[in-house]
Design brief:
- The chain is an all-alpha fold.
- It has 3 domains: 147 residues, no CATH class; 81 residues; 163 residues, no CATH class.
- The protein has 19 helices and no strands.
- The C terminus is likely disordered.
- InterPro entries: LPLAT_7/PORCN-like, MBOAT_fam.
- One of its GO terms (molecular function) is acyltransferase activity.
- It is found in: Endoplasmic reticulum membrane.
- It is a multi-pass membrane protein.
Length: 413
């Protein structure tokens, strides 16, 4: 109880320091979420909670869109974290109180909440100072294990030192690169030059995300939260809360690999509340929920709509083209280099509206590129055949880093 109280009080004090009286909106959303758990039917509470939290968040996104205040801290960021925490807890409560045990996956069974959380533990989970401002978001059960000290944890000193050292490098990279590259509007530039601009602009914007997520991870690790067992080589894993894998992002040779290692905890939330449960087109539903969660700027929706055909085309290529290049080391290397290049170009193309935000300017960029990565994926889908293994592959492709973490924990125990 003491640790829950301290985490809650420090979180509220931190919020008051950063946002002043606007902290009441954070506390208000937490109160509404708990009231839904108390009074709503457990069979529908997860749906009502997701609708409430997304609607609540959207009101602030609209206010921020209409009245941008660059000289103030953005309340929508902690609200985005709260949206994930409150809705995720409701889904896990639904799994523990409604779903039959045989209908739950091992991952869902481990995270299921079997009884109503106390008001204090709910407040501590949602408003803890450790993840209030920038995350990372974790499951309620993982947070309870940490707070109650129920499992043996390793020594975070090495992990924290490495992550803080990396933060210093990332901060320098952000300061040096963030404003160095931009899009050229010269109509005489070649298509290759335009794509080079896109790639350099995208890469130069990544360090600020890398820095924020790595620092947030290090803060939690320093508190003893984030231990994830022992790796195959005998070293301690402190990646339970990690939000990215920089090396895998920069060397990704598939669209899926890039997405799987970027904003990992948000991807886990999307998988848990949408992808695994959506009755209609899980891929499109998940991308649209992600856009809705990010905000109301048109660029978000254009980015995630663009990602749908590219993702489908990438799956088709992997199933039909990849086996042709597995005969020798040279052919595998050629395939890896080619797919890395295509992945980085496709991702840079996809996220351009996300960075620009404005619909008109985003469409001008796409028009200058001939909508090439809108047309090419559609052609790939039409030309390449479907395979009999598509259902199995799609299920496999939905495995998140959180699933992998569960597998690691299961192996340790």
């Amino acid at each position: 109880m003491v640790r829950h109280s301290v985490a809650s009080i420090l979180g509220i004090c931190l919020s008051i320091y950063c946002f002043g009286w606007l902290t009441l909106f954070l506390i208000g959303e937490v109160a509404l979420g708990y009231l839904l758990l108390l009074f709503c039917d457990a069979r529908r509470v997860h749906v009502y909670t997701l609708m409430l939290t997304m609607g609540y968040l959207t009101l602030f996104h609209i206010e921020r869109f209409l009245y941008p205040a660059k000289d103030q801290m953005d309340l929508t960021v902690p609200l985005m974290m709260l949206t994930q925490k409150i809705s995720r807890l409701a889904f896990e409560f639904h799994d523990g109180n409604v779903q039959a045990d045989k209908d739950l996956s091992p991952f869902q069974r481990r995270l299921a909440i079997w009884s109503l959380p106390s008001p204090l533990s709910y407040l501590s989970y949602t408003l803890s100072f450790l993840g209030l401002l920038a995350g990372p978001v974790c499951s309620y059960n993982d947070y309870q294990i940490f707070i109650q000290g129920e499992e043996k944890s390793g020594n975070p000193l090495v992990a924290v030192s490495r992550k803080l050292s990396l933060c210093c490098l990332l901060l320098v990279a952000h300061l040096v690169l963030s404003d160095r590259f931009s899009l050229s509007h010269d109509p005489d530039r070649s298509l290759i030059s335009h794509y080079t601009d896109l790639y350099l602009m995208a890469v130069s914007r990544r360090p600020k995300y890398y820095f924020a997520w790595t620092l947030a991870d290090a803060v939690n690790n320093a508190a003893g939260f984030g231990y994830n067992g022992i790796s195959d080589d005998g070293t301690e894993r402190w990646d339970l809360l990690s939000n990215l894998n920089i090396f895998k992002i920069e060397t990704a040779s598939s669209f899926k690999s890039f997405i799987d290692n970027w904003n990992i905890q948000t991807a886990v939330w999307l998988k848990e509340v949408c992808y695994d449960r959506s009755p209609f087109n899980p891929l499109l539903s998940t991308f649209m929920l992600s856009a809705f969660w990010h905000g109301v700027h048109p660029g978000y929706y254009l980015t995630f709509l663009t990602a749908v055909p590219i993702t489908l085309a990438a799956r088709r290529v992997r199933r039909t083209i990849r086996p042709m290049f597995q005969g020798s080391t040279l052919s595998r290397a050629v395939y890896a280099i080619a797919t890395w290049l295509c992945t980085q170009i496709a991702m840079s193309y996809t996220v351009t509206p996300f960075l620009i935000l404005e619909l008109g300017q985003s469409m001008r960029v796409y028009r200058s590129l001939g909508f090439s990565f809108h047309i090419l994926p559609v052609l790939v889908i039409l030309v390449l055949p479907t395979t009999q293994s598509s259902h199995r592959d799609v299920k496999s492709s939905s495995m998140s880093v959180c699933d992998q973490n569960f597998n690691q924990i299961k192996k340790e125990t």
